[in-house]
Each structure stands twice: as structure tokens, then as C-alpha cells.
Design brief:
globular
Length: 255
């Protein structure tokens, strides 16, 4: 306990799923957390459950003004941010030839532009307070290609590259920037439990070395490590947590 004692974090897309798990773990480890999301009811409810160490703000990650409002709330209530987790994201399932341009732009706006704006707005305040850690949530689809999600893959590869450039630019200000690459994780973004049973993912799971989908509790501890001083010499790196997906296909020679 106390691995984030004294730290102030902003987490985007934190009302549910992976972001909510990160917010809960951060608070347990001593951080004060600003939960940003467009899901107002879920986000406010989470902040209330977490108590005085948490605040919620409506955050549209595609809007620079919305980011500046989130930063202002953070400064007013908790002080300068020392951690930023760019977690907000969406996925669009479609073959490239069937993907509408507006869908591609929507995915890029949220996944890539949202990450860019978060760093642009928050990094100066972080630098002024002596530095900190930025964690950009990419995907295993930012390491390898994946069919039917071309817009998502494009955005997550871009987040990976943007992370490296930010690490080079911000290192002198004592700001570390790393990317996290989850594989298939059981969250509301990937599966609606009311309409899609877990068994529907069995063909995918069979091809993973660990033979299961990930959970939010598989991802949050890695994000915690990168947010903490335990990772003080890590920057510009990819941290993959994917059940072995990007290691290769374990059934490739099963014939």
C-alpha cells in the first residue's frame, strides 16, 4: 500500500472498465485521482464511491478546452498532476474496404487525438511541478496487425509512435512517457455481457498461450507500476500484457 502516496493522477475514460479499475487501484495506493469521461452518471458514481480522494469531470478527450477544464479542476482541488493516464478509447469493427471515413476519423479522434491533447495540456503543468509519468494505453494491436479493426489498429500504432516522441521531448523535464499494450480484455468496450457471452471469444482464446481473456485486474497493476517511482528509469517503452498474443500462434504447427 502507498505506492502512489502524494501523487495526483488524471485518468481519461475512467468511468468504467479498465479506467475505473485503474482509478480504484490508484486511490487504494494513496493517489488523488481525477476521473474524466463522457459517461457522467457512471463517472460521478465511481468518484462518490472512492471518496474524498477522487473527483469526476465530464471530459471529451477530442476537445482541447475540455482537457483544460479537467486540468483546472485538478489544480484547484488536488494540485499539479504527477500522473496522466490516457485511457479513453473506442473500437470499430469493419473490414478496411467497408469502413466509412467518418468512422475512421472518429476512432482516430478519440484514440489518437485524445492522447495527443492530454499530453499537450497536462505536460506543462507536470513539468512545472518537477515531472511525473504519462501512461498511454495502446493495444496489442499497436504491436501487430489485427483483422477487422483497421481504424483501431491505425490509432494504436500511432499512439505507440507518439509515445516515443513524447518520451524524447519530455525527458529533460523529468517526465517519463510509456505505452501499455493490452491484448483481448473483457471490458464493456469489447463485450456487452447482456448480448455476447464469454464463450463467443473461445476461437480467439484457443489461439492464446494462456488460453483466457484478460481482465481489468491484469492491466491495472502494470499501469500502477508505470505511474509509480518504481519505474523511474523506464521511458519511451512498450509494456505488453496480452496473454502471449504477440509472441506468436502456438497452434501454427498443429496439422
Amino acid at each position: 500500500m502507498g505506492r502512489l502516496e502524494g501523487k495526483v493522477a488524471i485518468i481519461s475514460g475512467a468511468a468504467r472498465g479498465q479506467g475505473a479499475a485503474e482509478a480504484e487501484l490508484f486511490v487504494r495506493e494513496g493517489a488523488q485521482v481525477v476521473i474524466g469521461d463522457i459517461l457522467d452518471d457512471a463517472g460521478q458514481g465511481l468518484a462518490e464511491r472512492l471518496g474524498e480522494a477522487a473527483r469526476f469531470i465530464h471530459l471529451d478527450v477530442t476537445d482541447e478546452g475540455s482537457w483544460r477544464e479537467a486540468l483546472a479542476l485538478t489544480l484547484d482541488d488536488f494540485g499539479p498532476p504527477s500522473v496522466l493516464v490516457n485511457n479513453a478509447g473506442v473500437v470499430h469493427f469493419s473490414r478496411i474496404v467497408d469502413t466509412e471515413l467518418e468512422d475512421l476519423r472518429r476512432v482516430l479522434d478519440i484514440n489518437l487525438v485524445g492522447t495527443f491533447l492530454g499530453m499537450k495540456v497536462v505536460a506543462p503543468a507536470m513539468a512545472g511541478a518537477g515531472g511525473g509519468s504519462i501512461v498511454n494505453i495502446s493495444s496489442s494491436s499497436g504491436i501487430v496487425g489485427f483483422p477487422m479493426v483497421g481504424a483501431y489498429v491505425s490509432s494504436k500504432w500511432a499512439v505507440r509512435g507518439l509515445t516515443k516522441t513524447a518520451a524524447l521531448e519530455l525527458g529533460a523535464a523529468n517526465i517519463r512517457v510509456n505505452s501499455v499494450h493490452p491484448g483481448g480484455v473483457d471490458t464493456p468496450m469489447t463485450r456487452d455481457p447482456e448480448t455476447t457471452p464469454l464463450e463467443a471469444f473461445e476461437p480467439f482464446v484457443r489461439r492464446l498461450p494462456l488460453h483466457r481473456l484478460g481482465t481489468v485486474d491484469d492491466i491495472a497493476p502494470l499501469v500502477l507500476f508505470l505511474a509509480s517511482d518504481e519505474s523511474s528509469y523506464c521511458t519511451g517503452a512498450e509494456f505488453v500484457v496480452d496473454g502471449g498474443q504477440t509472441a506468436g500462434d502456438p497452434g501454427l504447427l498443429d496439422f
